């Protein structure tokens, strides 16, 4: 059951999201950037032309198949007066996913907190508030209103994770497969679920045969992923020349800084976090030195500059990179103490700091980030959610959650306003360009 507070919070979130959806749709009436490829591919599916495939598309056809199913339901039951195969209908796909995601996250949070001592009503409202924090995350929220694969991919990965937590392993596997049909890189979630299963089996003192079976299965999944990378030298289906497989270890400190920025309210609102941070520094000086040296090596020898990053001025990462990281090479190294401090702070935020859990989470984050040559914040969405779900909110207050939502809301308001109302033109191109993540 949901409390009145939970219902009110969700209703406010849903109404706001629908309003923003209408605002974006009314201001951006043509497919923009990658939407162009997804829209025309979905349109072919919509008219029954399943043989057509645009080689520029980098992901499997899960999004288009889902849109077709939703279109069939809407037109069959005349639920909405929406033009068949329209951009509005296609964008509606992600809106529906986004309206459902808070309940998915809430179920995960309930399971994680089931042994906490707070009253059930407090836990329910707190879980919904935490879920809305995740759904309001700027990268997730922004791409809700465009016909991209991110939101559908997140919906099915998180649904699979939720079912896993409730021991519905067959259903979890089905949703994991669907998530891979959305984005092939979601194989990382499969490996994460296998890791969680192994961890739980170890903790429940299962038999050696069970552990062996899980180990063999995980090895087969890992081998299939590695074989794909070896054979294609890429992590995408199309445009493989622009998505080459590299070991971009500098992505890890970028991700750590990115994540810390968006959960900073949980750190600054509780002095205990800073006390624990100081104690960690003094108790583990060798760990700190090791992290400094490791980060230095990542930046020195494993930093890559993708062509898109330095040439496409429609993305915020272009300005971050060109104004700071590219212009001042020393700036990359000056951030090392910040990266290390953020790493420690994030570690201290985890509710399960056991070695095997930290390793499992770290491996999944590495797989999701360092194989990407391009610095693009969209690639951080899945690892961010996995880490955010591990946040120990027993040490946080509702004030921290409200501040997190406020921070996200301000960023969302600015980025969506700029995207819709501040278009610009390239000198050699008559098409309207827009600023985006």
Please supply descriptive tags for the structure shown above.
globular, Dol-P-Glc:Glc(2)Man(9)GlcNAc(2)-PP-Dol alpha-1,2-glucosyltransferase, two-stranded antiparallel ribbon, single chain, Alg10, transferase
Brief characterization of the structure:
The chain is 69% helix and 2% strand. It has 437 residues and is mainly α. A hairpin with a 2-residue loop joins β1 and β2.
Beta-strand fraction estimate? under 5%
Order of helices and strands: HHHHHHHHHHHHHHHHHHHHHEE
- SS-based structural class? mainly alpha
Parts with pLDDT < 50 across at least 5 consecutive residues: none
Quaternary class: single chain
Number of contiguous helices: 21
Cα-to-Cα separation, first versus last residue:
37 Å
Shape: globular
Rg (C-alpha, Å) = 22 Å
Strand elements, count: 2
Order of strands in the sheet with most strands: 1-2
Question: Roughly what is the average pLDDT, rounded to an integer?
Answer: 88
Number of spatially distinct domains: 3
Please estimate the helix content.
55-70%
Major sheet details: 2 strands, antiparallel
Family: Belongs to the ALG10 glucosyltransferase family.
Protein name: Dol-P-Glc:Glc(2)Man(9)GlcNAc(2)-PP-Dol alpha-1,2-glucosyltransferase
Pathway: Protein modification; protein glycosylation
Keywords: Endoplasmic reticulum, Glycosyltransferase, Membrane, Transferase, Transmembrane, Transmembrane helix
């Amino acid at each position: 059951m949901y409390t009145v507070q939970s219902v009110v919070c969700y209703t406010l979130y849903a109404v706001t999201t629908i309003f923003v959806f209408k605002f974006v749709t009314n201001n951006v009436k043509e497919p923009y950037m990658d939407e162009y490829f997804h829209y025309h591919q979905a349109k072919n599916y919509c008219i029954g032309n399943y043989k057509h495939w645009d080689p520029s598309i980098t992901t499997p056809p899960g999004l288009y198949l889902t849109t077709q199913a939703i279109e069939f339901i809407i037109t069959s039951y005349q639920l909405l007066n929406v033009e068949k195969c329209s951009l509005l209908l296609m964008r509606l796909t992600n809106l529906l996913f986004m309206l459902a995601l808070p309940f998915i996250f809430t179920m995960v949070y309930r399971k994680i907190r089931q042994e906490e001592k707070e009253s059930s009503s407090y836990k329910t409202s707190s879980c919904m508030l935490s879920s809305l924090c995740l759904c309001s995350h700027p990268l997730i929220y922004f791409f809700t209103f465009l016909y991209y694969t991110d939101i559908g991919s997140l919906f099915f990965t998180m649904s699979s994770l939720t079912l896993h937590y409730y021991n519905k392993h067959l259903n979890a596997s089905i949703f994991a497969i669907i998530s891979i049909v959305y984005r092939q890189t979601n194989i990382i979630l499969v490996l994460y679920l296998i890791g969680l299963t192994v961890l739980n089996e170890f903790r429940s003192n299962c038999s050696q045969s069970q552990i062996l079976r899980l180990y063999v299965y995980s090895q087969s999944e890992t081998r299939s992923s590695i074989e794909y990378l070896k054979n294609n030298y890429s992590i995408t289906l199309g445009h493989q020349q622009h998505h080459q497989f590299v070991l971009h270890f500098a992505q890890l400190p970028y991700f750590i800084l990115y994540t810390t920025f968006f959960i900073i309210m949980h750190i600054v609102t509780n002095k205990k976090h800073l006390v624990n941070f100081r104690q960690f520094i003094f108790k583990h000086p060798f760990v700190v030195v090791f992290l400094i040296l490791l980060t230095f090596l990542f930046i020195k020898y494993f930093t890559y500059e993708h062509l898109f990053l330095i040439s496409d001025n429609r993305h915020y990462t272009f300005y971050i990179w060109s104004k700071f990281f590219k212009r001042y090479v020393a700036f990359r190294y000056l951030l090392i103490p910040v990266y290390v401090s953020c790493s420690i702070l994030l570690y201290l935020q985890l509710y399960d700091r056991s070695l095997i859990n930290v390793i499992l989470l770290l491996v999944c984050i590495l797989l999701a980030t360092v194989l990407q040559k391009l610095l693009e914040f969209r690639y951080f969405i899945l690892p961010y959610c996995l880490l955010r779900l591990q946040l120990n909110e027993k040490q946080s207050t509702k004030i921290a959650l409200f501040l997190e939502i406020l921070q996200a809301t301000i960023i969302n308001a600015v980025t969506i306003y700029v995207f819709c109302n501040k278009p610009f033109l390239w000198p050699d191109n008559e098409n309207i360009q827009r600023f985006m993540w």
